[in-house]
Specification:
The protein is of the alpha/beta class. The protein is 58% helix and 8% strand. The N and C termini lie far apart (49 Å).
């Protein structure tokens, strides 16, 4: 990210940039920074945008070969093309484009053996945007508050992250709500967070799992009905519960094998700083119970889809029966 900032600051742009990774907020942020910098604020005449599978590579190359009109550079933005995971039509042309053309690719996944990946690496710059660790996420969120003259303790910030989740776009939105709510005050408290911040559904799912582990179906059902009042669909809740049981099963097994937390996070697809929380919950279940819960969840989903059970009642029955395992 520092490299991209420096290129924008100096105006010395490379021929191509590849932005990829799991952190969508940062990827969009630096995509937009590059666009604003290359086009000097808003020259749409020298901007071309292509998105999705099935992009015409010949058209992309043709636009890239076109010299800019009354400007120093032309920008070509290509998003979610899939070209970095398979065959692509422009790898050979990248290095032959005029120096006045800057190409920016924004992708979810890449294969580093891919020909286009190697071409961009040779003539441009590649930046992977990974999910932030807990410390960096807290510092970033605290920085947003500080920019609006607000202060927050580390403990309260930890509570905030736990409540609203780790999605940076969502964090930014919840910070804006806190800033507006605390107008006239400079310290954000836990009470402020409880008053205005929306708890992510994953947080409620975590709580439901805790109650299942404690064999407390009454509290698990109350949390489930709270989600229904928030207009969450029963099948969405079932899907998230199944996902949670799958993650717990993986985390428990990988930890038993002695795998480091960083590798567990990568394998299970969870933020590195959340591994401890998942391990703590996984310890409340035996490996056999976790397997049985997954099997039971899949069976419940099948019954709903086949019309044997009403979806709301099916999830209620599942919560009651899982609490008895």
């Amino acid at each position: 990210m520092k490299t991209i900032k420096e290129d924008i600051k100096t105006g010395n742009y490379r021929r191509a940039y590849l932005l990829y990774g799991t952190e969508g907020y940062l990827k969009r942020l630096y995509r937009d920074k590059l666009k604003q910098g290359v086009l000097a604020g808003g020259d749409e005449m020298n901007f071309s945008y292509f998105e999705g599978k099935g992009i015409d590579g010949t058209q992309v190359v043709h636009m890239g070969q076109t010299l800019p009109f009354f400007a120093d550079r032309r920008l070509i933005l290509v998003e979610n093309s899939g070209w970095f995971k398979g065959a692509n039509p422009i790898a050979d042309a990248i290095g032959e484009l005029p120096e006045t053309t800057v190409m920016v690719f924004a992708e979810e996944e890449v294969d580093k053996r891919n020909k286009l990946y190697k071409a961009v690496k040779e003539c441009g710059y590649i930046c992977e945007f990974k999910a932030m660790g807990e410390r960096d996420l807290k510092l970033w969120a605290a920085g947003l508050l500080k920019a609006d003259g607000k202060k927050i303790t580390d403990g309260v910030m930890g509570y905030f992250i736990e409540k609203v989740g780790t999605d940076m776009e969502n964090i930014r939105t919840e910070i804006e709500k806190l800033v507006a709510y605390t107008y006239g005050r400079d310290v954000v408290t836990q009470k402020d967070i409880d008053e205005v911040c929306t708890e992510q559904i994953t947080g409620r799912i975590f709580q439901m799992m805790d109650q299942i582990a404690l064999q407390n179906p009454k509290n698990a059902l109350e949390l489930y009905h709270d989600l229904l009042l928030l207009r969450e669909k029963p099948m969405s809740i079932l899907f998230l519960m199944l996902r949670q049981f799958n993650i717990l099963m993986q985390v428990k097994q990988l930890n038993t094998e002695g795998m480091p937390n960083a590798d567990i996070a990568a394998k299970a697809g969870i933020p590195p700083f959340a591994v401890g929380k998942y391990l703590s919950q996984a310890r409340a279940f035996s490996a056999q119970v976790l397997k049985e819960a997954v099997r039971f969840g899949v069976a419940t989903e099948t019954q709903v889809k086949s019309g044997q059970l009403n979806e709301q009642i099916a999830v209620e029955l599942m919560l009651i029966q899982l609490s008895a395992l």
